[in-house]
Amino acid sequence: MKPHFPRDFEQNYQTLLKRLKLNGLQPKTIEAYSRAVRRAGERFAFQIDALTEQQLTDYFAELLASHSWSTVKLDLYGLRFYYEHVLHQPWVAPDLIKPPRSQQLPDIVTVEQAQQIFAATRVLSYRVFFYTLYSMGLRLGEGLRLQVGDIDATRQRVHIRDAKGNKDRFVPLPAATLRVLRRFWQVHRNPILLFPNRLGGLKQAHRAVTPLDRGGVQNTLRIVTQACGIKKNSRRTACATATQPT
Prior knowledge:
- This is Tyrosine-type recombinase/integrase.
- Belongs to the 'phage' integrase family.
- InterPro entries: CB (IPR044068), DNA_brk_join_enz (IPR011010), Integrase-like_cat_sf (IPR013762), Integrase_catalytic (IPR002104), Integrase_recombinase_N (IPR010998), Integrase_SAM-like_N (IPR004107), Tyrosine_recombinase_XerCD (IPR050090).
- Residues 104-246 form the Tyr recombinase domain.
- Helix content is 51%, strand content 4%.
- By secondary structure, it is mainly alpha-helical.
- It has 2 domains: 7-87, DNA polymerase, domain 1, CATH 1.10.150; 111-227, Orthogonal Bundle (hpI Integrase, Chain A).
- A 3-stranded antiparallel beta sheet has the order 1-2-3, with no helix packed on it.
């Protein structure tokens, strides 16, 4: 059910949504920034157009007590975007938040663990998907967005679209991965999608217009890794790695 906002807040909120889209932000970022404005609106009785530095200090101190640094940071960016692009006002607290600096290396599955995961994944589309991400070091969303036309067998590379920072890039295509993808395409024969959804089964895969479901992929990976006794925390890829299987 759509939340009910006061008229002035609703008008600015709708402008915010338009500005976020016009700035080419990803859907996840749009949701995070808009959620930040909604949350602040609820905290300040939807009167957020002239918040003082002290009010923002108190608010973010409260928020940090119940949320992670990443959430607080996104809320800060969201409110700052609102002030700069909707209200056209300068942000009053430029040095308000400085998250602690830390660098965590992603968990890496070994080649042996990856082979366990592939062998334990019974569904063909998920098994090929995991192998593809592992062999090319792709993020989950990057793999889901892959299309048949992104595969350049001649140059042995793959065109990754809308990667981190809304940038495209090319990644090397291992010969083994190309062979796996060719065999998989012979099964589903979708003219566009490399990993079509499974809603209609393999018989309808060639007609699918959406890729594999993100939640289904994540849930399957979680079940498989637990069955294999593998505990990994990395969210960068479905099977984060620095090596490639042969």
